[in-house]
Amino acid sequence: MIGDRALRLAPLGFALLSLTLWEAAVRLTGVPDYLVPGPIAIIRAFLNDPSGLLRALLSTMIVTGVALLAASLLGTVLALAMAASRLAQAAIQPWAVVLQVTPIVAIAPLIIIWVGDPFASLVVCATIVAFFPVFANTAAGLAAAPADLMDLFHLYGAGRLRTLWLLRLPAALPFFLTGLRISGGLALVGAVVAEFVAGSGGFASGLAYTILESGYRLQIPRMFAALVLLSLAGIAINFGLGAFATTVLRSRGETA
Amino acid sequence: MLTVERVGRRFPNGTEALRDASLRLEEGDFVALLGPSGCGKSTLLRLIAGLDHPDSGTLRWDGGAPPAPGELGFVFQDATLLPWASAAENVRLPLRLADVPYDAGRARAHAELARVGLAGFEEARTRQLSGGMRMRVSIARALVTRPRLLLMDEPFAALDEFTRHKLQADLLALWRDAGCTIVFVTHSIYEAAFLAHRIVMMTPRPGRITREILSPLTPGQQTRLDPAYAALVGEVTEAMTAALAQA
Predict the structure, then answer these.
(1) Do B97 and A173 make contact, defined as CB atoms within 8 angstroms?
(2) Which residues, in sequence order, are CB contacts of B130 under 8 Å at separation 6+?
(3) DSSP 3-state assignment of B151?
(4) Which tens digits make up the pLDDT trace of B26-85?
(5) Among A35, A4, A39, A14, which Cα is nearest to A24's?
(6) What's the CATH fold of domain B2-246?
């Protein structure tokens, strides 16, 4: 039998094994740092300038957080408008899809020129990328209230606002939380892409810019360190929003 | 209470769900609408509830106006509770929608839960309750406004037989002391024969009312061991078989 403990430690063990093999391979073959750095070189690169890298991480995370907040607000408001009126639905739906399918890399330069302020333009780009999942899920949730319950509210003479507030909005919450989790990851992707575009224009301070800059200077270990921070940030966002969703739904008594 | 006169309903997809259905509903009746799937019994119930409208025929309410919100209770096949709200909040919902103040609503919801045998479960969430308990909450919610008319759409169809028997007996007791009129849709001959005072039989394609049988059982005193109950089940089975053979 495999114990719970062994199963929990398995990913960690696998990571340690892979990192050891990686380090060994780099040392045995003598590949230079500026081509493939080993894990130890990457850690050393991080320890050389922890404050700079962490500041870059913070900058990217702030853009991501603000964008996620903006995307949730915008997504919820537009989903509500669509739920309230068929006309609004017909008007909004196709444009939401247009926003969804337009590659952010293609419009980021335009946004950066138009918006001007570097922070605001990064937030706008990341918001555009993060918008769709939270919007589409919330809209689906608002439409997903069981027909029998809609009938029940109708029988007791509940108006549209009452039905929205007491039935459709609470019924949409799990959908919204699912959308939020997907949007969280996308907000980070959007922030990074925007930083890349903006970075090549000469301003920015986030992790993507660090990666770009380190690349130019052939500081490949530093580039890897930034990359590791970026994926750790992505993992943290995903797990954080997952835990948030579980906590909210549990407090409503919907999950164990 | 209500005269249903030659009502018909055809759905947009062309299905004729109901044709020429006529029915007189008296104050205090316990009527079962009995028939196989597709015979229009749920459609008729929804027409009475005002959740749907007939294409032909009329529904005439004694006194002219259809029941106001709260004068009519509806119990669906599923308990249809709000999963995020407690049992008491689910029962309070109709009162909340009628702007009854919070404390008064809470007190009435608690009393209603006690009446259906769920005292002590006020704060339980849907997922902590069994199927039978959920249905009890649903019935309490329908009764909390003291409706004159209670419409039930196969409410016990999804429950196991033991739970169903218990709920049927409890429903008769509730009907006796609530004194309301009940229209109960079912596809079970046993259930219709046990519960109802009048059994209205329906046949499908198109859905229509074919016959009505009056129960000889003493209202509210039914037992499953009564030979009269067995005889009634036999009579209804025979009549239903004949009606379906003709349809």
Answers:
(1) no
(2) B163
(3) strand
(4) 999 999 999 998 888 999 999 999 999 999 999 999 988 889 898 999 999 999 999 999
(5) A39
(6) Rossmann fold (3.40.50)
Dist CA B175 CA B181 (whole Å): 8
Across the A:B interface, residue pairs with CB atoms under 8 Å apart total 54
Report pLDDT digits (tens) over B188-205. Answer: 999 999 999 999 999 888
Query: CB-based contact (8 Å) between A156 and chain B?
Result: yes
- Mean pLDDT, chain B, as a whole number? 91
Structure tokens at B75: 């119990």
CA distance A202 to chain B (A): 51
Q: What are phi and psi of A128, to 5 degrees?
A: -60, -40
Per-residue DSSP letter, B162: H
Establish if A36 touches chain B: CB-CB under 8 angstroms: no
A162 contacts B127? CB cut-off 8 A? no
The ipTM estimated for the assembled molecules is 0.91
Evaluate whether B75 touches B150 at the Cβ level (below 8 Å).
yes
Residue ranges and CATH numbers for the domains of chain A are: 65-249 (1.10.3720.10)
Tokens describing residue A201: 């224009």
Q: Using omega within 30 degrees of 0 as the cis cutoff, is the peptide bond preceding A109 cis?
A: no
State the Cα–Cα distance between residues A244 and B5, nearest whole angstrom: 56
- Which H/E stretch holds residue B60? strand B56-61
Cβ pair B125:A254 closer than 8 A: yes
Alpha helices in chain B (DSSP H): 41-49, 87-97, 102-115, 131-143, 161-178, 189-195, 227-246
